[in-house]
Amino acid sequence: MRRSLGLAIVSVLALTAAACGSDNSTATPSTPAPAPGTDTFSATIAPGGTVMHNFTASAVGPVNVTLTTTNPPSTLLGLGIGIPGGNIGGCNLTKTVQALPGSAPQLTITVEAGDYCAGAFDVGAVARSGAFVTLSVAHP
Predict the structure, then answer these.
(1) Among 10, 27, 45, 68, which is least packed, fewest CB within 10 Å?
(2) Is 47 helix (H, G, I), strand (E, B) or coil?
(3) For residue 41, what are the domain limits?
């Protein structure tokens, strides 16, 4: 009986010591804030197709969309910017233009902080074999 009582006391002391040394606070994981930047992406557009890219603007400011290259070269495409949704390629376009590839932005719009999408779509000039395109989206 004395041995059982001794084991019980040692067990209680061990549990008490373990409880005193633990930190029961919980850390809430943080989501990193979106940062300004330029997203560059490439894809192949099929005839009648689209390529869209989602991004997050971190603040109010301009978004510049640039169709930098196409292959075959000089393929005329539509460029657009909007909000993610169920329309063209998962993007509800709010502003569009037709453009040839170049180094200067072909589409610029001012946005508020939030989620957006931008990309390219065929306006009838994409060959049967498709067109490889590279776009950049500079955003706040």
Answers:
(1) 27
(2) coil
(3) 37-139
Cα separations in angstroms, 124 against 47, 86, 99, 103, 131: 7, 22, 13, 23, 12
The whole-number mean pLDDT for each consecutive block of 10 residues of the chain, a chain of 140 residues, reads 47 48 55 84 97 96 98 97 89 97 98 97 97 98
User: Domain of 89: which CATH number?
Assistant: 2.60.120.380
Is residue 28 included in any domain, yes or no? Answer: no
pLDDT of residue 111: 97
In a domain, 30, yes or no: no
Spacing of C-alpha 109 from chain mean position: 18
Amino acid at 1: M
Which residue type does 28 have? T
In the chain, the number of structural domains is: 1
What pLDDT does residue 86 have? 83
Q: Identify the pLDDT of residue 35.
A: 84
pLDDT of 27: 57
Which run of H or E residues covers position 2?
A: helix 2-21
What gap in Å lies between CA 55 and CA 107, rounded to an integer? 16
d(CA 6, CA 2): 6
